Structure formats: structure tokens, C-alpha cells
Request: fold
Amino acid sequence: DAFLSLPAPVLAIAVVAALAPGFVHTLIAVSIVWWPFYARLVRGEVARLAARPHVEAAKLAGVSRFRLATRHLLPGAVPNALVAASLDLGTLILTVAALSFLGLGQAAPAPELGADSARNLSYFLQQWWIPVMPGLGVLVLALVGNIAGDCLRNLMKNR
Reply:
């Protein structure tokens, strides 16, 4: 709850700034910011599944806690977490691009869309397409990620 109460972009910027700019540190910062959501999602699904009759029957049969978790609870919770992660793919792309735009991504020769857009802002008035095209690339990638997440959700729902 403490992690969820903090503003995610500010926390991600603070983590990357504390670790040093870099792609791996950016991914670490995003992971630190987003893990509480997935932990809460999986915890809620496991609690919901724990009340199901087949889990109660397994408990009465004397199944170990490890086997109960790996055979009865986690397989039911993973699909929802997977769908949530795929729906967050667009947000992840936007967040990584925003952090690299601010200079908290990988170093200069790396082809990061956010950093490319930031480095080329000086061309905006003369040749607008130079800084805008990386931004459009981020837009297209985020859109494709969201559409893929929607398709995965529909596939899981129809199962």
C-alpha cells in the first residue's frame, strides 16, 4: 500500500537518478514502481481461488501447501496477471520513452526513441519531422502493445 500511494513517475525518476542513468536502471525503476500492482492482483486472485471447492477438497485431502499453491492456486492467478501485464505494455513503453526523454535512459549513441526525440528538439522549427518521428514511433509501439493486450484478454476470456 505504501508503494501504491506514491506517484509512480516521480518514484521512477528518483530511483533512476539514484542508480545512475542507464537502460537496466530504467527497467529496475519501472519494476520497483509496478510490482505492488501485480502483487495485489495475484494476492486477490489467490484469495478468490482459495475459497473454491476444489481447493477446499485438496486441503481436506492433506495436500501440502507447496503443491496447493503450485497446482491449484497459481495456475488460476497467472492468466489474469499475464493479461494485466500485456495491457500495461503500452504504458511501459511510454514510461521508458519518457525517462529516456528526460535523460535517464541509456547513453547517447543508443537508439532510444525518447532520447532521440529529446536530442533533436533543436530541429523542431526548421525540420519538425526529425524530433516528431521518434515520438510517433513511441505512439505506434504503445498502440500495438495495447491492442495486443486487448487481444490476449479476449482470448483468455473466451477460454
About this structure: DSSP finds eight helices and no strands in the chain. The helical segments are 2-5, 8-19, 23-50, 53-60, 65-87, 89-101, 113-119, 129-157. The CA atoms of residues 90 and 144 lie 8 Å apart. The chain has a mean pLDDT of 85.
